[in-house]
Amino acid sequence: MCSVDGERGNWTSQEVFEEINSLLNRLSSEDLSSLPAGSMGEDQIALQRICNRVQAEGLRRLRRFDTGRGYAPSGALSARAWLRWRLNLTTTTASERVAISRKLAALPQTEQALADGDISYRHVALIAETAGQLGEKFDAQGETILVDVSKEVCPWRLQRAIWNLKHCLEPDGVLSEANKANSRRFLHLSQTFDGVYRIDGWLDAEGGAVLNTALDSIMGPWREGDERSATQRRADAAVEMARRQLDGGQLPEVGGQKPHLAVSVDMATLSKEPGSMAAELEWSQPIPAETARRLACDAAITPIIDGEADHTTRVVPGATRRALIARDKGCRFPGCDCPPAWTDAHHIKHWADGGPTTLDNLILLCRRHHRLVHEEGWTLELAQDRELIAIPP
Ligand SMILES: [Zn+2]
Ligand SMILES: [Zn+2]
To answer: What was the pLDDT predicted at 3?
Structure first.
């Protein structure tokens, strides 16, 4: 492009944009159903490289727009304000884009790799940010390292390489960054009006890794037939972790008592008499009768029945539980292989309906299947050979 006294010459980028658009029209009019699906992989790679190149050209032109104050005639006060206004960008995106276009002026290798299509905008953003943080310590050699890494790995892994580079060049800075990350930690646990709890938080790298490792171990590998999403499985694992801490009895006492969850429920509710009150869980809102029946089923949660804590009568005696574990070896629900530690003792006929707390009337169910049977209306039947049959509602 040549430019004479602010005027574009006889060669304008407008023509090029028209050509690019007509080429894109050719692509979008292609009937993909007639093409082998496998060929779309190569197309993804080619299109990603083109996107990268387009980003590079956009940043190059933005730099000229910004440094030459090309936005001024429109009345906008900055390139960032103009981008927000005319491209409908958020403030963050517009600021980042202007900052990167400026920093790229001093990062020739990075700019070239983006222009060649070899690395993406996100890689460039990370390299530019690092260059800004390290200042004069970031030299051409450092840039070569990061550009080479960017060509091979995703931005997430590039971040690790950056971490290592920073550690070499500025170990004190890395420590103070880690301390800053640690001071940003928080955990919100709040209850919404409909009684649901919401968790929201930040952990530093170490805290997050500890939590992730523990949750991963409780989640275990995905099992055939498990219809929960990954996030649902993680939510269940977090609750399971807390439940085991409570059950394990290792937690410090609160108000002279081992911490435990109590459910207040009337006998009428437990035996599902019509017109009975809802049950109440400590720290929570009223819960459905069937949930109270499940919680009381194994008496793992102390039921407060008709106002009296019920510690003894329904608790599965140690010897019975040991026999139950020896017999069932884990969750008995068809196809489930949860180990005994993750299970409740379920009364096939609930004790509130007169079912005895004896081996014949008990089976082990994992928390998920226990819930399926109580709240979600599945029924269990024992076949002649004592094989368990689960019937959906
Ligand atoms: Zn049960
Ligand atoms: Zn199970």
So the answer is: 45
Ligand 1 centre and the CA of 304: distance in Å?
A: 17
Could you read off the pLDDT of 231-267 as tens digits, one per residue? 999 999 999 899 888 877 778 877 777 777 777 888 8
pTM of this prediction exceeds 0.85: no
pLDDT for the residue 283: 67
Which residues fall inside 5 Å of ion ligand 2, going by CB? 331, 333, 336, 338, 366, 369
Cα(316) to ligand 1 centroid in Å equals 12
Residues within 5 Å of ion ligand 1, judged at the Cβ atom:
297, 346
Q: Which ligand is nearest to the CA of 363?
A: 1
d(CA 48, CA 45): 5
Rounded to 5 degrees, what angle do the CA atoms 182, 184, 188 make?
115
- Ligand closest to the CA atom of residue 390: 2
Element (H, E) at 274: none
Task: Spell out, as residue ranges, where the chain has pLDDT lower than 70.
Answer: 1-11, 283, 299-303, 309-314
The ligand placed nearest to the CA atom of residue 373 is 1
CA 384 to chain centre: 45
Alpha helices for the chain (secondary structure H)? 13-28, 39-67, 79-87, 91-103, 108-115, 121-134, 140-150, 155-169, 171-183, 205-219, 230-248, 267-270, 289-297, 318-328, 367-374
Q: Report domain extents, the chain.
A: 44-182, 187-248, 262-391
> How many whole angstroms from 169 Cα to the centroid of ligand 1?
60
Q: What is the whole-number distance in angstroms between the Cα of residue 352 and the centre of ligand 2? A: 23
Cβ-contact 56, 119 below 8 angstroms: no
Q: 189 is written with which tokens? A: 């646990």
